[in-house]
Design a protein that fits this description.
The chain is an alpha+beta fold. Helix content is about 25%, strand content about 25%. It contains 13 helices and 23 strands.
């Protein structure tokens, strides 16, 4: 085994340990073939069965790229044009600000309609976490069209103007594929993408998955890292996130994109269609602009760190800003290369596909739960493949810097004691002393090796918090108090901010 894969295995193992992720499978492609594949942990905890490279998991919203690939095929056949209005194929009459929604708007999440939350409600109810969410009688595209009536009063932007992740739009795209092709969505994708690519163990139907002996049990992982066996939403989520696959099959799918629509002698997309899917069409949320600094904020007391046009220029090297195409997400600058891929989650299974077209390498990860973001693991793997130092990745640098500020703090002569711990990209400041308890979230503005500047809100008032590394220790100035760290914290376990099942960012219970 090469050193890079040994290092990757250790990183994956540690992150699974800290977040309680039950099982994970991973495959790496390079030079036109799969060069590494492995399972970690358990596909079935109750029976003690290990995860393998062939284990089946839900791929979540990575399915959206298959939906777009199908639409591009139909365009190549002259059966539709992605510039067509949705109303040409479906009884869809939402016109944001009087303008028509076209297929390409749904494909790129630029319809102007914010997420309506159908998938989030379905997933949360299925795992018993729906709270007050209503049960929706959405059993297909006709029900979805009924559900969406009235959403014209919910629009937020003109079509093509702004990115709003819209699972509902991909349900409609599945209906367009059915209406144009004359086949069911499942049959069309199976016959025209999966089987031609040799993805013979990639399924949508319960009977196919549950008859396979190497399938992962989907688990809901609670905040205490306990794993609760659940089930997939067979038939209730399809063209927006219903595919069940394995990393070996998905590696062939990545090779298709790296081969510009072709694997071996099999072509499923034209080069033009592949380029169209990867083309950046709308900016998505940027990653931590202006928070990480290459220079110490504490050394420039004359500047106000964070915010302003210069903030982005001082961001950490290699920090990605993402764009969305047709079912694929693109980062133009990942260590100087273009990064393409997509994440996915149905809460009880998570996925991430990422590849570098110009370099010819990629990685696929699948897991039977939500834990450490698989997108982070993918980026770590790709950095190793490029021969770059993964520690330069912004998310790892942020983890290291924030973990370095955690621990137990005391005021002068120990008159008051506080705890600082990390919860994802935030710090939690807590004082627990009998009848006086305080717990606030510290939001980072600027963080570097010298410390960090944070803030919180209390009764509408903005309270600053500053960490300084001085004389071999760490000091915290919070509101009127100055505290000195008396014992450092540990990175395990890491807490979770939320389990929102929808949205753009990848895992932790989010569908993307």
């Amino acid at each position: 085994m090469t050193d890079r894969f040994a290092r990757l295995e250790e990183f994956v193992f540690d992150r699974m340990t800290e977040t309680g992720l039950p099982g994970l499978s991973l495959a790496v492609v390079e030079g036109g073939e799969t060069v590494y594949r492995r399972g970690f942990g358990h596909r079935d905890l109750e029976r003690g069965l290990p995860a393998t490279p062939e284990t089946l998991y839900g791929v979540g919203s990575v399915t959206k790229s298959f939906t777009c690939a199908a639409l591009m095929q139909l365009q190549e056949k002259g059966l539709l044009n992605v510039d067509d209005e949705v109303g040409r194929y479906l009884d869809f009459d939402i016109r944001p600000f009087g303008e028509p929604v076209r297929l390409r708007h749904l494909m790129s999440h630029t319809s102007g309609i914010p997420a309506l939350g159908y998938a989030e409600a379905e997933i949360l109810r299925a795992v018993g976490a729906g709270g007050g969410a209503r049960r929706l009688p959405v059993a297909g595209p006709d029900d979805m069209l009924t559900f969406m009536r009235g959403a014209d009063a919910w629009v937020e932007a003109r079509p093509g103007e702004r990115w709003f992740y819209l699972n509902e739009g991909y349900v409609l795209l599945g209906a367009v594929i059915e209406n144009v092709s004359g086949s069911s969505y499942v049959d069309y994708v199976t016959d025209n993408i999966l089987r031609p690519l040799g993805m013979d163990r990639s399924f949508f139907l319960r009977e196919d998955v549950e008859s396979d002996p190497d399938r992962a049990v989907p688990y809901a992982v609670d905040p205490e890292r306990r794993c609760h066996p659940k089930s997939y939403l067979y038939g209730r989520i399809t063209s927006d996130g219903g595919l069940i696959s394995n990393v070996c099959d998905m590696a062939r799918y990545i090779l298709m994109y790296l081969g510009e629509g072709k694997v071996g002698e099999v072509r499923v997309l034209s080069e033009a269609s592949v380029r169209a899917m990867m083309e950046p069409r709308v900016a998505g949320p940027s990653v931590r602009p202006g928070i990480l600094r290459a220079e110490g904020w504490g050394e420039r007391r004359g500047e106000v760190p964070g915010g302003g046009p210069e903030a982005d220029k001082r961001a950490a090297p290699g920090e990605p800003t993402g764009f969305y195409g047709f079912g694929l997400h693109t980062v133009p600058d990942f260590f100087g290369r273009r990064l393409v891929g997509h994440g996915g989650s149905v809460l009880v299974a998570t996925a991430h596909m990422a590849f570098l077209p110009e370099v010819g390498c990629g990685v696929m990860l699948l897991a039977n739960g939500a834990g450490y973001p698989l997108g982070h693991l993918a980026h770590y793997a790709l950095a190793l493949l490029l021969g770059e130092d993964p520690e330069q990745l912004p998310f790892l640098r942020m983890e290291r810097l924030l973990d370095g500020l955690t621990g137990e703090y005391e005021t002068f002569r120990g008159t008051m004691r506080a705890t600082v711990r990390r919860r994802e990209d935030f710090l939690i400041f807590e004082v627990k002393d009998g009848f006086y308890n305080l717990s606030v979230v510290l939001v980072p503005e600027a963080v570097d090796d010298h410390g960090g500047r944070f803030f919180t809100l209390n009764h509408g008032e903005r309270i600053p918090a500053e960490f300084h590394r001085r004389n071999g220790g760490v000091e915290l100035v919070y509101e009127r108090y100055k505290l000195r760290r008396v014992s450092p914290g540990t990175p395990f376990p890491r807490g979770r901010i939320s389990r929102n099942a929808g949205g753009a960012r990848q895992e932790r219970g989010r569908r993307n």
